[in-house]
Structure formats: structure tokens, C-alpha cells
Amino acid sequence: MAQGTVQVTHTGTSRWRRRTGEYASLAAALEAAADGDVLTVAPGTYRENLVVQRAVTLRGPEGAQGSVRIAPADGVPLTVRASAVIQDLHVEGQDAAAPAVLVEDGTPELVGLRVVARSASGIEVRGSARPTVRRCTVDNPAGVGIAVLDGGGGVFEECEVVAAGQAGVAVRSGGRPRLERCRVHHAAGSGLTATGEGSAFEAVGCEVYEVRGSGVQVTGRATAHLTDCDVHRTTGDGVTLDTDAVLTLADCRIHDIPENAVDLRSRSVLTLTRTSVRQFGRNGLSVWDPGTRVDANQCEIFDSTGDYPAVWVSDGATAVLDSCRVHDVPDALFVLDRGSRADVVDSDLSQVRNTAVSVSDGATAQLDDCRIRDAATGAWFRDHGSGGTLNNCTLDGNRTGVIVTKGADPTIERCTVDSPSEAGVYVSAGGRGSFLNCRVTGSAGYGFHVIDGCRTTLKKCRTERCARGGYEFADGGPDSAYDTGPLVEDCTSDESTGLTAPAAPEPVVQTAAQSPGLLGSIPGQRTTEQEPLIAPAAPQEPARTSQAVLGELDALVGLDSVKREVRALTDMIEVGRRRQRAGLKAASVKRHLVFTGSPGTGKTTVARLYGEILASLGVLDKGHLVEVSRVDLVGEHIGSTAIRTQEAFQRAHGGVLFIDEAYALSPEDAGRDFGKEAIDTLVKLMEDQREAVVVIVAGYTAEMERFLSVNPGVASRFSRTITFGDYGPGELLRIVEQQADEHEYRLGPGTPEALTKYFAEIPKGPAFGNGRTARQTFEAMVERHASRVAQLSDPSTDDLTLLYPEDLPELP
Questions:
Q1: Would you give the distance in Å from CA 178 to the centre of its chain?
Q2: Where do the H-state alpha helices sit in 105-243?
Q3: What is the pLDDT of residue 588?
Q4: Cβ distance 443 to 467 under 8 Å?
Q5: Which of 191, 543, 613, 733 has fewest C-beta within 10 Å?
Q6: Gap between the Cα atoms of 571 and 554, Å rounded
């Protein structure tokens, strides 16, 4: 029964018909109403199942939105089968087998409805119905928020699904709605989903977030088009396409996704235009299966939060990136499997922690007019059948520009590799490749480094300012399976660093010299006129004595126990040398060390000094420090980790290999993690080259204890563990005093006391940086001092040099 009355304003003009009437129930009012009549419902709760079959207006009282509740015990509370206007009603559905609002026919307008239900769906549109739904909200934690099916359509404007037990908006069986400026959130399933051939939706200016499934899901030959939409904070993938789905995204933003930002497979097709993808936990674009294709134009993919490639193309899929930017990611583009292909045009790949472009397992990549910057490896063609083309590309500031291994055969044409820190081009293990009109400049290693006798073709290539030499060709020795060597034609080099450049560019010919590896010694290269290119080596500065280096160690603030440990180790080595000279047996000293402690306690500095001490004692040839972490040792595929670890060991030959956060090689939830491969390779190399390299592993104390306990093979290789304690307030003050003295500042009256109090109160959590914190504090004081002194018109020397307590930064 109704708790109010319904006033019907009749539009008819017949004399015998009243212009207005009062009815005790909605059903009676609807029975009496004709097309065009207005039904104004008084506030109250109406336990009726309404069926609107005429083009009437049904509304609550003005200014009292939500005061009219349609709440039957079961069934469909509101069914609309005509072009009616339904406005400002509160609809409650309790039947899990029926929708709360069902629109079956006509072009009705639903405005300002509040649907709170535990129904199969909050609002359901079927058949020939084409409603316009404005400013409605749906709260249905038991089922679908909005369902459009069986050929239904309509427009939803500024609507909101605030909760759904399944999908927020579900389109199936030929439904075709349009969503404008709608919000869908807190759904237990996907935010927007379309399934089945003929099903489609268009969304403009919409937002999907806080859903437990995918933000957008299109499957089974359905199509969708999103413009200016946001998809973020999902539990599953941001966008999922499967089984011949077609989706277009224009000017959209996909971000804060813990899984794949976009995942498509099974012949699905995705078009992205001016869309940004950021803060994703797995792949930004994940593309699988033959016939699956993504076309991205003017898009940006960046700021990955996981350890996966930004763009992943595999199992015969295709990806096209045109005028795109991919940056701040672990890896930029991985193309795997025969039939898989990536075409990249006029795009930027930068700030890549590992490999910018990786091509493997028979895949193909074509890059034209692209720029690859600041990556560990610019492009890596990994194995047999893998190839493609780099055409007119620039690779700048990468550790290695191009790597070709294991039978891969790409074509690199008119490309420039600038300022690589290791090598411009590195070819090994049966890699091939053709390099045409390419240039390598400013390499800290070789320009072109071809080992194992690989059959690489170099034509009209040029190297400039390469520290170790422009070209290094080395065979793999008597056991090498690759003995044909590179083909070199019309290649030139200036040989500027450590080399005397010829008066005019002259062809380089293949040398028979051998090299021990990627960073081996410079070979005895000759020009065609046999003029020696190697200039006399500059005299080296004499190495410091062990006592001089120990003096620098003693000058470090704090670290008393560390200094004692290093001195004891140094004394053992020195006495062992003297006993050998006297014809006595020397005690065996394991030189590998474990450093434990918090960040900023001087572990790297002590490791550098330790290497220099060992060099001064003649234990190591060079004593230099090579610092690496997990990202430098662990590859993406079986076998690549061993290569990376061997290369790191080779760089440290004659010195110290310092592995920071070594426990990351053996995570607690390792599974199929390749860190174990790095550990196994490391253990073998430490045994095989125990006289050539000293290894120091470092990290937090508790984590390193776990690391050594689960890897007894590693633990047995180390002689001792040295613990670096946190600095106290007084030691941190001394570091600031040293920094001030070095930069010609002084601590004014009261500043030492203020600093001591500051360091005593500063939080000592995991982010505390010890000595780094002290240095950052000094830098902050200098900045605040500058802001203060800049206001003085004629500062004195004291003004310019004295730091006062007021210059201290706020406590974090």
C-alpha cells in the first residue's frame, strides 16, 4: 500500500474528463493516466511493481529528491515500455532473479533515479528500447550495475555505478549503448564489458576505477570505442581484449594498474591514439597470438612499477608504435616467437633499466627513425631466426648500443651509436648481422666488438673517439664453432683516444688478434698502409702504498670495527707474502667479503679502498671497483643471466666486483626467478677465477643473513662478514663539519648543538641514509643559507660562510 497519494494532471480536453485527480496507489494512477499526463507522487514508500506503458511523466515532488521509494517485496519494481519520463524516484529491488529497473520498449527518459538494489541488475535495457538516462546512480552489490542486452541501446549521461556485485556496465547479445561522462567504480567484476558479436558500446569522458576485475573488457567479437576516458586503480588488468574483439582508445589515460595495463589476444585488434599508459605492474601493452594486433599512435607508456617489459609481443602477434614515447621502464619492447613482429616509427625509447628492444625466438622488429637513450642495452637480437631492421636510428648514452648473439641476423643501416659506456656494437656466440653506413662515437669501450669469429658484415661504417679502439675482431680460440670472421668493407676510424688518427680516413681490415672478451685489451690493428695506430701509452701515476690507502680509511668518520677488520685482513695478507718470500708456508686467506648494514654507512667507499689496498700489495692487478646489482646480473630469459654475470665478472677482472643488495638475487618467493642462475654462475666464476677477482656482497644485515643461509655454496666462498653500524648523532655532525670545511663554509654559534639534536631526533626508519642523510642535510642548509643571504645587499664574509641553526631543514 502507498503511504501517500498520486496526483495525475490530465492533458485531455474532453468535458466529461477531470483535469486533475488524486489516486491512492501508483497502479491506479497509471491506469487512469493517458499519454502526456503528469503523475506527481507524494513522498512515501510504495510497495508496488510499476509498469509504465504510456508516454506519461512520473516524478516525485519538486525539491524532495529521493523522498519517493518504489520498494516491492519481489519482482521488478519499475518496468518501462513506453516513451515516458521517469524522474527523481528512489527504486529498491530485492529480487536476485530480476532487474530493479527494466526498460523494454520506447525512448523513455530516466532522470535523477537512485537505484539501490540486490537484484540481477540495477538498470536493464532490452530489445528495441532506446532510453536516455541522465544523472542516475546505481548501487547493486549483488549483480550487474547497468545491463544493455538483446539489441537494446540508449544514451547514459552523467550516470554513476557506485557498487556492483558483478560488472559495472555489461553489454551483450547485440546491445549498443553510449556512455557520456559516466563513472563506474567499486565493481566486483569488470568496470565496462562487452561480449558477443554485434555487441558494442561507446564511452566518452568516462571514468572507471576501484574495480576488482579488468577496467574494460571486450570479448567474443564485440567492439568498443573509448574517448577521453580514465581507467585506473583496478585489481585486474586495465583493459582486456579476447577472441576477435575490436577496441579503439583515443585521448584516454590508463594508470595505477597492478597487472597489465592492456592485455589483448586471440585475434583482437586495438587502436590507441594519444593515449597514456603509466604506473603498471606488469606489461603496459601485452599482445599475444596470431592475428592479434595493436596500433599505437602518439601514445606514451611510462613509469612502470614492476619488473616486466613495457610492450610485450609474442606468439605471432603484431604491434605498431608510431610517434610514441616509452620511458622509465625496466625494458621497453620485447618481441618473442616466430611470426611475432613489431614496427616502431619515429618513436623515443628512453630511461630503460635493462634492454630497450629485445628480439628473440625467431621474431622480427623494424625500427625506423627512432631514438633509444639511456638503456643498459639499446637493441638485443638474441638468437637464431631473430632479426629485423634498425634504419636511421640514434642510440645515445646506452651501456651497449646493439648486441647480436646466437645466430640472430638483423640489418642495422644508417644508425648512430653515441657515448656507449661499454661498446657500440657487440656480436658474439654465432651472431651475424649487417651494419651498413653506421657510426659509433665516444665509446668508453670498443666501437664494434666482434668475437668468436662471428660472420658479421660491416660496410662503410665509421668510429670516432672510442677509448679501447674502433674495431676489435677476436676469434673464439681453437674450440670456437664460428671461425669465418667478419666481412669488413670501406670502414674507417679516427682512433682518437689512445690512438693516433690517420691524416685521412682509411679502410680498416680484419685483425687476427684475439681478445679475452667484451672489454679485452686493444688489439694491434693496422691500416692498409701498415702505419701503426697505437700511440705510446702515457706513463701511469704510481699506485699508492697500502699504508697511504689505510690512512684514507682511518680518516673516514666512525666505522671503528670496520677499520679493525680491514687492517687485520691486510696484515694477514702482508705477513703471508713475507712468509712466502722467506720460504715458509703462508696461511690461506679468503679475500671475498660480506658487508652488512644500512644504506649510507660507507660500504661502497670501503670496498673501493679495499681493492686499492689489495692492488698495492700485489694481490690484484688493478684494484678497480665494479659495482653491480640484481638488474645488472639477471636477464629475462634462460641463458641471458649467465651472459650478464660473466660480463660483469670480466669487467671486474683484476679488481673488485661489488654486488649491492645481493639478497635480491634470492628472493623469498623466487619461483622461476633467474636470480638462482646468477648465483650459480657467480659461485663457479669465484672458483675458476679466484686469483683474479675479489667479490664483495652487500646489503641489509637481516636480509644478507637469510641470503647466506639459503645459499651455502655462496656462503662458503666468503672469509668473513663485516658489519657497518649506523652513525650516531656525533658522527653525523662530524660528516657535516667535513662537508662544510671542504666547501668553505663554517658552522656558526649554536649550529653544532642544533645539528646534534637534529640528528638525534631524525626518524631512523628504513629510509634513513646515515652518511647520505648527513650530506643531504648539509646541502639543504646551504640552500636555505643561500635564500637567506641573497636578501642582503652587501653581505660580509661571515654572512657568506656561516651556517646557523635557522638554516637547518625541517625534520622529515
A1: 33
A2: none
A3: 59
A4: yes
A5: 543
A6: 15
